[in-house]
Amino acid sequence: QDYTWEDHGYSLINRLYPDVGQLLDEKFQVVYNLTYNTIAMHCGVDTSVLRRAIWNYVHCVFGIRYDDYDYGEVNQLLERNLKVYIKTVACYPERTTKQIYAQFWKHFKHSEKVHINLLLLEARMQAALLYALRAVTRYMT
């Protein structure tokens, strides 16, 4: 909560590497906002709450928590098998198997599962950047 991408990371990386912060932010936003407004066979669904839950769960796995987010949403929206998959891919990618991939969201399209991968990998990258940039900030002060 005390070091976020929006408030701290973005501006520091732009100061160190001009324009890189903008490129990274655009990349994060494209993946975060990517949606077909469908879930499985249901069309016209607002998936923003689900996408936010996945993003925040990845950050939570890496020890980043936000006071203004209700983590009860994570438990309501993400089934256990999906949490296992997210944690495995984010923390132990070498342990990812086809079986783990097949166990979550069995009735969903592969494109939706690929979107999960994009979300979790970009959230993981942002989490790693936050830790690195926070260390740089502490070094500079």
Looking at this protein, list some descriptive labels.
oxidoreductase activity, acting on peroxide as acceptor, 67% helix, 141 residues, two-stranded antiparallel ribbon, mainly alpha, single chain, Sestrin
Short description:
The protein has 141 residues and is mainly α. It is built from seven helices and two strands; from the N terminus they run H-H-E-E-H-H-H-H-H. It has one domain.
Task: Summarize the helices and strands and which ones pair or pack.
Layout: H1 5-16, H2 20-33, E1 38-39, E2 42-43, H3 48-61, H4 72-77, H5 80-91, H6 98-103, H7 110-140
Antiparallel strand pairs: 1-2
Helix pairs in contact: 1-2, 1-7, 2-7, 3-5, 3-7
GO molecular function: L-leucine binding; oxidoreductase activity, acting on peroxide as acceptor
Protein name: SESN2 protein
GO biological process, one term: cellular response to leucine starvation
- Major sheet attributes: 2 strands, antiparallel
In quaternary terms, these chains amount to single chain
Q: Can you give the mean pLDDT?
A: 93
Total domain count: 1
Number of helices: 7
What is the first-to-last residue Cα distance? 19 Å
- The total of beta strands comes to 2
* Proportion of helical residues: 55-70%
Rounded to an integer in angstroms, the radius of gyration calculated over CA atoms is 16 Å
Overall outline:
globular
Q: What share of the residues does DSSP label as strand, in percent? A: under 5%
Strand order in the sheet with the most strands: 1-2
H/E order of the elements? HHEEHHHHH
Instruction: List low-confidence stretches.
Output: none
Task: Specify the structural class.
Answer: mainly alpha
